Fold this sequence. Notes:
Low-confidence stretches: none
Strand order of the largest sheet: 1-7-6-3-4
Strand content: 25-35%
Helix content: 10-25%
Structural class: alpha+beta
Mean pLDDT: 93
Number of helices: 2
Distance between the termini: 14 Å
Largest sheet: 5 strands, mixed
Amino acid sequence: PSLKSAAHTNPIDLILRARVAESKSKSWQLVSQGGFEIDCKVIKNPREEIIVKGGEVVRMGKKKIFRLKL
């Protein structure tokens, strides 16, 4: 499935938009524990800015995989 995103975003906003976690604290916990990847790069900083170009593959948790589009 695909997920629409803004050009500049952060992992927390992406997780909430995909409805993988039900709150910001759960999203924060998921990212801090290494459960968030973009194109096979693990992101552990919930405040890290992500620049979306379109077509990136995002994995949230074990089984939730999305392709980003603008």
